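Title: Prediction job returns without error message
Component: structure pipeline
Severity: low
Priority: P3
Assignee: unassigned

Description:
Job completed but the reporter wants confirmation the result is attached to the right record. Sequence as submitted:
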Amino acid sequence: MKNEKLSKNKLVSWDEHLDKKYGFPGTDTRTEFEAKTQAFILGELLKEERAKAHLTQAEMAEKTGTKKSYISRIENGRADIQLSTLYKLVERGLNRKLELSIR
């Protein structure tokens, strides 16, 4: 019985977990999960950098010509963001440079 319990709770790799829960890479479900993950990561990065710049969401919105509610949605991973808006947020709002790469 103890061995059965161990096999049920077998540790799996992160990739195996994602494959089981969201399907294999390239499937619609997995692609949607990965897109939401990237939106979350981007939002966290912007939130962290905005805090380092000692700006409120309202101040960032004013500097970039956007709305506070939009900044909030981006930071919470709930909004798609256009590349031009991302540049505005980083370069005008944070006074930083944005670098993109394709792998």
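Comment from assignee: result matches the submitted record. Residues 21 and 30 are 9 Å apart (CA to CA).
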